[in-house]
What does this fold into?
Amino acid sequence: DAKTTQPPSMDCAEGRAANLPCNHSTISGNEYVYWYRQIHSQGPQYIIHGLKNNETNEMASLIITEDRKSSTLILPHATLRDTAVYYCIVSDNTDKLIFGTGTRLQVFP
Amino acid sequence: NAGVTQTPKFQVLKTGQSMTLQCAQDMNHEYMSWYRQDPGMGLRLIHYSVGAGITDQGEVPNGYNVSRSTTEDFPLRLLSAAPSQTSVYFCASRRTGGRRETQYFGPGTRLLVL
It folds into this structure.
């Protein structure tokens, strides 16, 4: 499975956009990019995923570079409740998700 | 729908004891999995199942057994607990296939092995 690299922590002011980067330079053609988050002590929560096109839903936007070697999760208007650990995961067709250590996003007032 | 449920929420075991962590989902999902999360670390896949009667090993399967006799249930068994198995355990389920499937996680079971 391809591995991902994320910064260990980031800060964001409330109301501003949070842009969380992820590198996945060894991603293979059939692997999707998934983003999950985990709010303190709770189970992970699905955010969004994509293959090669940019995606948007009610929670976030996912921007994938044309070469698919990196992506960015965008929370357009971060709130205090978005403080969490964010995981970027690449997954092939075997339906296994390998979580790394993620990025700890701290949203401050 | 209750989603993914896990029992118990907390458990303390002595070294060598056995126990079963229960996981159930009412969404008719084919795929279910177990993860463990140690302090300050991400989730690591223990075992997974793509349907009733089918299970496979994940990243850290040693010391754990699973079975999948029904679509709804996916119990995780610790045959002889060790302090290294102290962790938070999450069960998850989702549909296989499809482009926008969502994986749903349970609330977790916190296990302490003394």
Notes: Chain B touches chain A through 28 residues (CB under 8 Å). The longest strand of chain B covers residues 43-51. The two ends of chain B are 36 Å apart (CA to CA). Chain B has no helices and eleven strands.
